Amino acid sequence: MSANPDHPLVRVEAVSKRFGRRRPVQALSSVSFEVQQGEVFGLIGPNGAGKTTLLSCLLGFLKPDEGHITVAGLPPDALAVRRQTGYLPERVGYAPELTGEAFLLLHARLLGLPEPQAKDRVFELAQRFGLGESDLKRRLRTYSRGMRQRVGMAQALLGEPAILFLDEPASGMDPQGVMLVREVILQAKARGATVVLNSHQLAEVERVCDRVAFIKAGKLERVEALREPEHTRYLIKTDPQALPAALEALQKLGVEVFPGRDGEVTVRLLKSQIPALAPALVSAGVPVLALQPAPAQLEKLFVEEA
Ligand SMILES: Nc1ncnc2c1ncn2[C@@H]1O[C@H](COP(=O)(O)OP(=O)(O)OP(=O)(O)O)[C@@H](O)[C@H]1O
């Protein structure tokens, strides 16, 4: 699979999907978006919104009723795409009688890894996900939920995939596991991989995703950039009486201003403007009570859109 850096890696065009005949459920309605190579792209939205259905279409497990999906210009179920794809399903329901080791080795062999390398890779990844040798000797049916997620993540990463689809990767994991998932996603991005992440853990989505798509009742409501190459957001807190002076100073500085409550203002500005922010406020006589990078406020977006 050779991705062209000038073209989106994943292209979704007007995809619709229904389930059932007598009382059909419209799981996706004309969804269109693109994911760029090297991006971490999040899917968020309420339960039953259609996120897992969309992932299944992106993976080629389900065929859209209408519309079109390509990955690196190919159909999602093309062998060349599959070879480069890692996938963690929402419910990890692997062959329960296999031991963790046998399961991971099976997948390493399916990937075509030669024998000594396959074993090394399995042990390296198991260790990375906190599964010791005694865990690997146990059957998967005896694994806890978090352990199943961990073995699932190890499996998804076996082939160093160029594109990773993760459906609720941190669900059921302890805080260390959550941090590990975050690290793994950011490392995948650092080596140039593309990640599509479906998650309800908005704080994690905010931390790792470059953009998020908000899906509701099968429709793509909006796509929000969480990281922009040249811009950033800051939250300023001042005395409520000083707010008009603060707004005037910020407008003079030429930044985008979003007034909040209780003397709070969020600004969107060029990163190069950051050093000028505090001096502009102080020289206008505005008491600066707080000045800090502003979170993307996905929770607020979620509540507004849901
Ligand atoms: N195989 C199926 N047969 C019938 N209906 C289905 C099937 N799979 C999903 N649906 C329905 O399609 C809609 C979208 O479901 P989907 O699992 O994609 O949502 P989701 O956004 O992933 O939800 P959650 O956040 O709860 O995991 C729901 O109404 C669901 O009941």
From TrEMBL:
Pfam families: ABC_tran (PF00005)
Keywords (A to Z) from UniProt: ATP-binding, Nucleotide-binding, Transport
Claim: ATP-binding is one of the keywords in the record: yes
Segments forming a coiled coil: none
Any one GO molecular function term: ATP binding
Family: Belongs to the ABC transporter superfamily.
Protein name (database record): ABC transporter domain-containing protein
